[in-house]
């Protein structure tokens, strides 16, 4: 199932209809890589595994598909040509690794479909979901702050000298490569400020042929993390023809309902939400503070309310797991036919 054929404005609505009205996004990627033993203490973060552990990346994608995810997001959030270049890789090698992030996710989808075709049931004895359904691969693009690896994607503070043309130049080739790599759409994630949203929107107008979503983050439930107005940021997304969904990620669950209602005021595009577990991130220590989030059962208790007030794509971000995604699937009425 791809999103790069037909009219952009109907593509996501068609996908959502085939998904029962609500599509499930996968959960925390780095969280799972670390749980499997990967050391991500590196400026490349989860993208480091594109160099060292491609089998593990593929397995995490599969784990999320078998938990019920309809959309898997590539391990390219912190993968940039500039970041790979700092590690000594050529431009060509860096572009190949960006493409590889999409290839691995597509391979996982193919393996999953093969397992579905060989399975006698959609719900296995060990809890895996093997249901042949439309599945999208979203190519992740993290913010400039994610490349800096200093926590500034959680503040949106790039300094007074930052300008639109610099950000467009920084992201341009990366976006082009990912758009041409076989992904169904581009996921611009954890967008921390309005200027970066504007940069993405203008890049999409430069001949990019696949659609995208914009997902912002907030730490106060009102504005994006930079202090820019969420309404103004969402308006940038709403006015971009290539954007097929707009929403929130990596934000505490307690803020999501109010943020959905704010976004609804200015767009009729599908709203996506994939919050973190509610834990706090310590940018100095570069780690999540344990015991500051909510357990899966509390996280999932919000899900139907989010859908009732307007969300149509739901998943998890940092510190959520395949168990979180499985629990989301269980609580969605549209999934009851094969989650019983």
Automatic annotation (TrEMBL):
Single GO molecular function: zinc ion binding
Keywords attached to this entry: Metal-binding, Methyltransferase, Transferase, Zinc
Keyword Transferase set for record: yes
The residues that hold Zn(2+) are 250, 317-318
Q: Which InterPro entries match?
A: BHMT-like, HCY_dom, HCY_dom_sf, Hcy_S-methyltransferase
- Entry's Pfam families? S-methyl_trans
Question: Does the keyword field hold Transferase?
Answer: yes
Q: Which cofactor does it need?
A: Zn(2+)
Its BP terms in the Gene Ontology are: methionine biosynthetic process; methylation; S-methylmethionine cycle
Specify the Hcy-binding domain's residue ranges.
11-332
Can you name this protein?
Hcy-binding domain-containing protein
Organism listed in the record: Deinandra increscens subsp. villosa
- Lineage of the organism: Eukaryota, Viridiplantae, Streptophyta, Embryophyta, Tracheophyta
